[in-house]
């Protein structure tokens, strides 16, 4: 298998059609369709959506949002960080390294990353070097965030 190439997805109607293939597998909690519909500006280059194509088919996708350091409640020293959200690989393409490629792409931004794992995905995130954040009720609202920190960054005490 050749190396998976991560691309920023354009916010357009072609991408909307590709995203509809993902919800067909019943992953409503992962659906980015609403995000995409709300942000359609033809071929917007500032899309928060990234994907991996297998041939002409979108096989994996994620949202990646940058959060300003003034809102940082996770890392020390306070800094900009990324929220990696809605990572999904279609069932027929799992086990090919596409999810790993998306996470590595995010890590290469060299900013701390926060994510909220879905049921049964904890092992994947641990393999990718993520750890449980110390739970704070007011901050985490019942979520169980996982974080990844580049060298020189620590979790807030």
UniProtKB/TrEMBL annotation:
GO terms for molecular function: acyltransferase activity, transferring groups other than amino-acyl groups. Its EC number is 2.3.1.-. It is an enzyme of class 2 (transferase). Pfam families: Acetyltransf_1. Signal peptide: none annotated. SUPFAM superfamilies: Acyl-CoA N-acyltransferases (Nat) (SSF55729). Keywords: Acyltransferase, Transferase. It comes from the Bacteria. Residues 9-151 form the N-acetyltransferase domain. InterPro entries: Acyl_CoA_acyltransferase, GNAT_dom, YlbP. NCBIfam families: PRK13688.1 (NF010241). This is Uncharacterized N-acetyltransferase GCM10011409_23310. It comes from Lentibacillus populi.
């Amino acid at each position: 298998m050749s190396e998976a190439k991560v691309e920023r997805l354009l916010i357009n109607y072609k991408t909307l059609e590709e995203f509809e293939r993902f919800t067909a597998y019943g992953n409503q909690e992962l659906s980015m369709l609403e995000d995409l519909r709300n942000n359609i500006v033809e071929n917007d280059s500032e899309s928060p959506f990234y994907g991996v194509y297998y041939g002409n088919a979108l096989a994996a996708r994620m949202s990646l949002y940058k959060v300003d350091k003034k809102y940082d409640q996770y890392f020390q020293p306070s800094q900009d960080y990324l929220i990696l959200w809605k990572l999904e690989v279609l069932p027929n393409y799992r086990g090919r390294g596409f999810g790993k490629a998306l996470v590595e792409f995010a890590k290469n931004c060299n900013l701390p990353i926060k994510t909220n794992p879905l049921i049964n995905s904890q092992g994947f995130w641990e393999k990718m070097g993520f750890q449980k954040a110390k739970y704070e009720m007011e901050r985490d609202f019942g979520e169980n965030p996982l974080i990844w920190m580049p060298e020189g960054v620590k979790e807030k005490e």
